[in-house]
What we know:
The protein is α/β, with parallel strands linked by helices and about 1100 residues long. It contains 34 helices and 15 strands.
Amino acid sequence: MPTSFTVVPVEGQEPQPSRPLEDPSQQLAECSSGEPGDGIPKESSPFINSAEMDRGNIYEGKNMALFEEEMDSNPMVSSLLNKLANYTNLTQGVVEHEADEDSKRKEIKAPRMGTFIGVYLPCLQNILGVILFLRLTWIVGTSGVLESFIIVFMCCACTMLTAISMSAIATNGVVPAGGSYYMISRSLGPEFGGAVGLCFYLGTTFAGAMYILGTIEILLTYISPSAAIFKAEDADGETEAMLNNMRVYGTCIVALMAIVVFVGVKYVNKLALVFLSCVILSIFAIYAGVIKTAFDPPDFPICLLGNRTLSRRNVDICAKFIEVNNETVTTKLWSLFCDNPSLNATCDEYFNLNNVTEIQGIPGIASGVLIDNLWSAYTDKGSIIEKKGHPSVTGTEETKVGGLPYVFTDIMTYFTVLVGIYFPSVTGIMAGSNRSGDLRDAQKSIPTGTILAISTTSFIYLSCIVLFGACIEGVILRDKFGEAVNGNLVIGTLAWPSPWVIVIGSFFSTCGAGLQSLTGAPRLLQAIARDGIIPFLQVFGHGKANGEPTWALLLTAFICEIGILIASLDSVAPILSMFFLMCYMFVNLACAVQTLLCTPNWRPRFKYYHWALSFLGMSLCFALMFICSWYYALIAMLIAGCIYKYIEYRGAEKEWGDGIRGLSLNAARYALLRVEHGPPHTKNWRPQVLVLLNLDSEQMVKHPRLLSFTSQLKAGKGLTIVGSVLQGIYLDKYIEAQKAEENIKSLMGVEKTKGFCQIVVSPSFRDGMSHLIQSAGLGGMTHNTVLMAWPQSWKQTDNPFSWKNFVDTVRETTAAQQALLVAKNIDLFPANQERFSEGNVDVWWIVHDGGMLMLLPFLLRQHKVWRKCKMRIFTVAQMDDNSIQMKKDLQMFLYHLRLNAEVEVVEMFENDISAFTYEKTLMMEQRSQMLKQMQLSKNEREREAQLIHDRNTASHSAAVVKCDAATATPEKVQMTWTKEKFIAEKHKNRETNITGFKDIFSMKPNQSNVRRMHTAVKLNGVILNKSQRAQLVLLNMPGPPKNKKGDENYMEFLEVLTEGLNRVLLVRGGGREVITIYS
């Protein structure tokens, strides 16, 4: 819809007196060193080169003073429109939107080609070609007029639907050089673009081989049969000799054409009009010949023996014998079927029983032969071409027909084979879009020219089918090489004024098409190579100084030679049909995806498209691939699939705003909305992990093995969010946040951890952790498990992840009903490259918390690191428990869970609390109370805490003393006191502190803490006894105390519980069942 614009002049203020002329360099310096503005760096624009702008004019006047600080990144509308008006797309072979390698921009002449010259005629030349002249009559004769019409209509409908989709894509913005490859890659992404681009390249290359084979066939069969190098000694060796001739001549012509293309493409382009003239002249000759047959049919007699067609290559007279001077003389035909020329010779039985007759090969359009040619006549390889409805007497015994002058079929024919052979005749619809850089108005010319060209060629093909069937005898139509008409080109027998018009015209046409293929294919490969999406192809992006793709030409010639060595045009045609059909299928897919997604950038000027038409075209392409040849189709899809996976795995990442990315977003949105309906069933539950990482001052990950363990646990399945917190204000820390994110993503790539990274900048480290736990993820794709490392230096108060933060994190995961995994001694955990050849993964199942302890070892053992480890499950029996029954029940439970594990029940009997436990509890409480009351400096507090820790460690190895000796005295606590410290403390709340110190030294441990310490010590002893050599120990993580005053004691309990173990994973369930015995 046209939009009206109104340009409103802004009235300036009173004119100011003009300044004296200054040095331009000084003015430029003033402009460049002006006010810093908002500090936003310049942004690059695809249309505006800010370095080339006349900066002195930007700030002229004061009408735009309000926006002057944004002029660097956001230019004025007048400048933008000026640049857009002067924008021209680049010509063929130049890297899109880039300058030459020497960074010197060359002037590009304004493209001047219109629709007719730039699109219509090139498409016409590429579509009409070798199949029309060499195979269309044979297809009509073999499949009949009706089925031929269906074949041609299907193929033409396929290309028409593809052209509609292509027109929509081509008019949705500027299409630089690259044509169909550019359209597909920018619409479907680099993976699809590279795969289909290479398929299109292979199709174009094999098309060159097909055209060259057609050229040789015309040369050796119809122009100069004596030029054959290999001669057949008998009729059986003719096919093999012809194939060998094809290979020799084909290799020479490929080399010759490659040299011509290498020397100068401009000569090929200049000859294109000559080749096109040959094609158009040949088609006019066909139509003229058809009109002439209505009143003066040409004289092309066909010799039949019974209903069998005879070859006229070695037969001059179509009769068994003739009268010469009143004497009966046998003919050459007699000698071919009989053992001697005499009339009483022994002859072939079929020859004796049937008469030799002669009929007109081209009876004319008014003869009514169309009725006979309506139906198909499919045959096996080596069958004799017979005229339907003609009288024939079959002998009583089978006679050998080999060596007799019949016309035989060279391949087995059926409907699908003919589709594969015919389809290359409708390819070439991309010729206009490939020349988009040379068009005056590509968005108008490409749709109009391409659709008109397809309409024209479709009319030509469909009309030729009807006219051939109405003018030519069926046995001549099925005679592929014209043996029944003295070796003439069948379509040439119909032409007027002479068969040589078609022969010479088709020869030059196929030569020109081969040259065009060898010219276009290397440039397509060069465009793919220069995009950098396939690393091993980058060498083919280089060429001569003028940009000619030398290396790509060599590869193209080599692949073309492979097609030449196949040597049979009927075998090469289905191969290139596959590649072209795959390319067309993805053009339709690109249009359908863009239309259905309704992306904001999808605004084609061509309006006569619909997603249903694109989908129909895509379906038709897919169906034709398998109709032509199902095994070729599978091979082509396998090649494209391998290229796709290679680009996905090794190719450079490109962001082209492709439709597949939009399709993924839509699919993700739909899936997220579906997942949002409710929590997953227990059978579908898997740990969706939020990994909390610590970073150092350089924003590097402190514990990389945490990501290794994550990848071993997840194996690429489910959701993984890797999060970390930076302390500070976001406006001050956003650069550090970006650096941290890059470092984490890099490490995730090294550790093969598939997931997302999320960095939070918060004034408080504690709040940042809380934000991550609450808000990480999206919709139903949120984490249900938190994985973190044990704070090894939790006793050091300067540690940002102190014991207080850790305990609060445990509480918050419990409140959020999320499972918690705490890896202790994480740096001792194995890397992804390590392999455990033996060992155990021990599970200490003390309390049931949803089955996490059972599920985690199973998931770990799916990874190569843990695969050879055995799973052992220990549970604890109390005094009143039946340990034997407990073991049986646990084994049955594991059996129903389909888990293989050894089961052991450990008995823990009640006994008195040891003096060691009592003393350890007292030391813990004394230190906690002392650090609260003593206001020591940072270094002194660390020293005192370390002294008490060392004493506790020493106490563990000391002999057990009596319970009475466990009562602490002031003399036993070795504190470091100085005179200065004593005076300072005396002046600070003197009486309170003195009372507090007296309480510390005379206090008795809390009985609840004693019991807990007793449990920790006892369990630790049992676990050390059974699992000290285990590769990994998993055990229930007790919850923190409800009273927050005991948080530090809680950390001590966990430390005692896991003391002496190498690798420990503390597991705390999320309050729901995660494993089930049901299917």
